[in-house]
Write a structure and sequence with these properties.
22% of the residues lie in helices and 21% in strands. With 372 residues, the protein is of the alpha/beta class. It is globular.
């Protein structure tokens, strides 16, 4: 027999726990967060050396909420006295908040199948069935590496599958992809003694004010020393077509006919797919692999009462792939849903979120621009 909650959230990362905390503050109890593994599992699976690129800093008294906080009145910087937390530490922050706010979470409930009939969702999980009237998909992207378009990608190591860079053999390493995960891998491999070549489809000098479109200043600053000392170099405007393993040597075949070879496995840092692809038939899709959502409340354009929270949320030029961005859609989504159900909302809670820049309901204000 299935269990029923009016609202179910899938995923207990920063999006899922952040939504749960808001619901607790509003006094709404008919919800459940279903987590396939444990709270913050994506962060627990990061390479040990990886850290949050957005700096944590406690500045609430001056109207500046910690960039990595998921609810007002909290700060990872305050909790850990660190500016850049490891995945293990950030997972601990999420668990601390889940306990403090008594968030409803069921761990070890992997969602296997979802269907909607007669206006209600049914979720088949590894621990039994659940039904709900509204569903928020908050699974994140880390567990879904993107390797499409590269033949023989099985011969590479997805960056997210590396437990520690110190465990990898030192030597000539090729990294395919120059985003945050690729540059982070390059930095740690170089500091451990490897010679690293990063293969970029674009240019390293490409830069934008919005860190969602380029590598962060934190990452750029770290790799400069290794570049200056010759431990990291870049091949720009190259596209990898195939990886082969021939006589104990890995060969990387480029679109321009050139081939690179190494006895060590190349590392794939080619980005991540949207976690929403697990229920892809419930969405329309953009060419860039992101789901089409309503600007009003991040709702599927095909299925009513199905919402998306987390880094897959995108509206035209507004990209919500950082915690400090997608947390600003929690209250927008929940207010929309509770109003639809004619449930009274404590406006003091929403006021607190707005004063902490945690409500972005005007997407025209989300374009990042800097004069200098």
């Amino acid at each position: 027999m299935s269990q029923y909650k009016r609202l179910i959230i899938v995923g207990a990362g920063p999006a899922g726990i952040g939504l749960g905390i808001l619901l607790e503050k509003l006094g709404f109890q008919s919800y459940m967060i279903l987590e396939a593994d444990q709270i913050g599992s994506s962060f627990l699976n990061w390479p040990k050396e990886m850290k949050l690129i957005t700096p944590s800093f406690t500045g609430q008294g001056f109207g500046a909420l910690d960039l990595n906080a998921i609810t007002p009145g909290t700060s990872p910087a305050y909790s850990f006295r660190k500016e850049h937390l490891s995945g293990l530490e950030y997972s601990e922050y999420l668990n601390l908040l889940a306990d403090h706010f008594e968030v409803n979470v069921e761990e070890g409930h992997a969602v296997l199948h979802v269907e909607k009939t007669n206006g209600r969702f049914t979720l088949e999980t590894s621990q039994g069935d659940w039904t709900c009237d509204a569903l928020i998909w908050a699974t994140g992207e880390f567990h879904f590496p993107k390797t499409d378009g590269i033949l023989g990608s099985r011969y590479g190591i997805p960056s997210g599958f590396i437990q520690s860079y110190k465990e990898l053999e030192i030597g000539q390493r090729y990294i395919i992809g120059g985003g945050e995960s690729g540059m982070d891998a390059a930095y740690h491999l170089a500091t451990n003694g490897s010679r690293v070549t990063v293969l970029l489809e674009g240019h390293l000098k490409d830069f934008a004010a919005d860190p969602s479109r380029t590598i962060s200043p934190y990452t750029f600053e770290r790799i400069q020393k290794e570049v200056a000392q010759g431990r990291i170099q870049f091949l720009e405007e190259v596209k990898v077509e195939e990886i082969r393993l021939e006589q104990d040597e890995y060969s990387i075949h480029l679109h321009n006919g050139h081939t690179l070879s190494s006895q060590l496995q190349p590392i794939l840092a080619t980005g991540f797919k949207s976690g929403v692809e697990q229920i892809q038939e419930f969405f329309e899709w953009k060419k860039n692999g992101k789901p089409k959502l309503s600007e009003e409340a991040d709702e599927s354009t095909l299925i009513k009462n199905l919402f998306v929270a987390g880094p897959s949320v995108e509206h035209d030029s507004a990209i919500f792939c950082f915690i400090y961005k997608f947390r600003a859609r929690y209250a927008v989504m929940i207010e929309h849903l509770l109003n639809k159900w004619s449930i009274k909302i404590d406006q003091n809670v929403l006021k607190d979120y707005r004063e902490n820049q945690m409500i972005a309901d005007d997407l025209s204000c989300c374009e990042v621009d800097c004069e200098c």
